[in-house]
């Protein structure tokens, strides 16, 4: 008796994961067919971009300062505090900034996508679109996916800029490292291939956020309680998927690209 609810939950989750994969394939098919609503794309770009910019900048700035302070403290024991910019480039710019940015967008945008589509699903607005001969993938999902894929790399660039600014401030104020020394150290370690990889991560993470959010929204059944659960679960599964994807990209990037 105790195992039956557990098996039901596992079955429901497996169905939803399969639905996410199926939705991913449908998105590619509809994208290749060129069916897009450009006004909807611009609308969601605002949500994934300017609306999400304040928390991205706030978290990126403070994360840059915290990382610099902690790293410089350890490097100071070896008399190598001037190389803090290099450590900053290796860890913060390559990994921490993209992960933090994607997590913020997942929490703010991905949950909103799941809640919006979930509410539409339980109130039968999705069925109304079918009655109007409008495909929900074209009208609701594809614009959100395109918007996230376009804005996520932009948000990561903003996070990098504000993070480096915070790192410069912390290194200068607390460890008397000149901004020129910090920036030169960053430049020596951060290569063109690293910047390209950051942009690739932005595209992939944006796709993950949008597809997960839309999938959990479209598969919502029940009422208001289930809508909230879908939004919460969408964020959690998105975070897990982002970390898995980042691990795979890090393994593939062990042999850096040469230019």
Structure explained in plain terms:
The chain crosses the membrane at residues 12-31, 51-69, 154-175, 195-219, 231-254. It comes from Richelia sinica FACHB-800. InterPro entries: ABC_MlaE_roteobac, Permease_MalE. There is one protein chain. The chain has 259 residues and is an all-alpha fold. It has one domain (37-251). 85% of the residues lie in helices and 0% in strands. It contains nine helices and no strands. It has helices spanning 3-33, 38-48, 53-76, 84-122, 125-131, 136-175, 179-189, 192-218, 224-252. α2 runs parallel beside α6 and α4 (84-122) runs parallel beside α8. The longest helix has 40 residues, at 136-175. The radius of gyration is 21 Å and the shape is elongated. It starts with a helix and ends in a 7-residue tail after the last helix. Mean pLDDT is 86; it is low at 1-6 and 255-259.
Low-confidence stretches: 1-6, 255-259
> Helix amount, in percent?
over 70%
* Biggest β-sheet strands, sense, barrel: none
Distance between the termini: 61 Å
- Taking all Cα atoms into account, the compactness measure Rg is 21 Å
Count of structural domains = 1
Element pattern in H and E: HHHHHHHHH
Give me the number of helical elements: 9
Overall, the morphology is elongated
Mean pLDDT: 86
The chain-level structural class is mainly alpha
Question: Number of DSSP strands?
Answer: 0
Beta-strand content estimate: under 5%
Give the quaternary arrangement of the chains. single chain
């Amino acid at each position: 008796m105790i195992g039956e609810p557990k098996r039901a939950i596992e079955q429901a989750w497996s169905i939803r994961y399969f639905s996410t994969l199926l939705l991913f394939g449908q998105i590619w098919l509809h994208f290749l067919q060129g069916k897009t609503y450009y006004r909807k794309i611009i609308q969601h770009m605002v949500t994934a971009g300017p609306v999400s910019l304040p928390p991205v900048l706030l978290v990126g700035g403070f994360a840059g300062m915290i990382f610099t302070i902690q790293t410089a403290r350890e490097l100071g024991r070896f008399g190598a505090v001037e190389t803090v910019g290099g450590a900053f480039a290796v860890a913060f710019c390559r990994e921490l900034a993209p992960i933090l940015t994607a997590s913020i967008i997942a929490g703010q945008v991905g949950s909103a996508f799941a809640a919006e589509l979930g509410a539409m699903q339980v109130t039968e607005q999705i069925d109304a679109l079918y009655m109007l001969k409008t495909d929900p993938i074209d009208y609701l999902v594809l614009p959100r996916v395109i918007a996230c894929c376009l804005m996520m790399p932009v948000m990561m660039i903003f996070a990098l800029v504000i993070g480096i600014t915070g790192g410069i401030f912390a290194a200068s104020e607390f460890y008397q490292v000149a901004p020129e020394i910090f920036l030169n150290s960053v430049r020596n370690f951060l290569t063109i291939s690293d910047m390209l990889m950051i942009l690739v991560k932005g595209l992939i993470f944006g796709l993950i956020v949008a597809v997960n959010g839309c999938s959990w929204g479209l598969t919502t059944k029940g009422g208001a309680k289930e809508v909230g659960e879908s939004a919460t679960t969408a964020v959690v599964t998105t975070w897990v998927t982002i970390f898995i994807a980042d691990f795979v990209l890090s393994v593939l990037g062990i042999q850096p690209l040469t230019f």
